[in-house]
Specification:
By secondary structure, this protein is an alpha/beta fold. The protein has a single domain, classed as Maf protein (Alpha-Beta Complex). Strands 1, 2, 3, 4, 5, 6 and 7 form a seven-stranded mixed β-sheet that branches. Helix 4 crosses helix 5. The radius of gyration is 17 Å and the shape is globular. The protein starts with a strand and ends in a 6-residue tail after the last helix.
């Protein structure tokens, strides 16, 4: 049976398509800002899980019997959480803050059926941001803006974003925004894919 992806994320769609997972995408109507406000002081991984769960729940309530996948990613650098940039200037500010630091990217996935969570998982990748010059930041945004406006961390690892980093410790799929290997195992366990 086809699962429902509670998202319009291009990277999550591309991962599921490449992995051969039959799905349809339906955006979840969730106030992420309000959820984050309720979770001040909670770990970034748990916030990512809560957001993924809220998205899956919002879609699951109208999809009787269907398996719904919710996902979310959060970036934290030096204990500060970052949202998607709201403008090109804001993106440049984020990149200046990230310069020379370690970025923690938390990617969560939740499976729900009939409003009940049947599986959840979160993974963290550590990305060492190299020292970024202002001239690099400006030329990078000249080429990548507005494509990275919807990207927490202001990068697409599959594009020029790879130039931001000296090293990456963690799954490539986690960096792309979903703990795909764990998800595929869960889909097999749920009987949604052949084992």
């Amino acid at each position: 049976m086809t699962i429902i992806l509670a998202s319009q994320s291009a990277s999550r769609k591309a991962m599921l398509e490449a992995a051969g997972v039959p799905f349809e995408a339906q955006a979840a109507d969730v106030d992420e800002g309000a959820i984050k406000q309720e979770l001040i002081g909670v770990s970034p991984g748990d916030i990512a899980l809560a957001l993924a769960e809220a998205k899956a729940l919002a879609v699951s309530q109208g999809a009787s019997g269907r398996l719904v996948l919710g996902g979310d990613s959060l970036v934290d650098v030096s204990g500060r959480l970052f949202d998607k940039p709201v403008s090109r200037d804001n993106a440049a500010e984020h990149l200046r803050f990230f310069s020379g630091q370690e970025m923690h990217l938390h990617s969560a996935a939740v499976l729900m059926r009939d409003g009940l969570c049947v599986w959840q998982h979160v993974e963290c990748a550590k990305l060492k941001v190299r020292t970024l010059s202002d001239s690099f930041i400006h030329s990078y945004l000249d080429r990548e803006w507005p494509a990275v406006s919807g990207c927490v961390g202001v990068f697409r690892i599959e594009a020029l974003g790879v130039q931001l980093f000296d090293a990456i410790d963690g799954s490539h799929f986690t960096v792309l925004g979903m703990p795909l290997l764990a998800l595929l195992g869960a889909l097999r366990a749920q009987g949604e894919m052949p084992s």
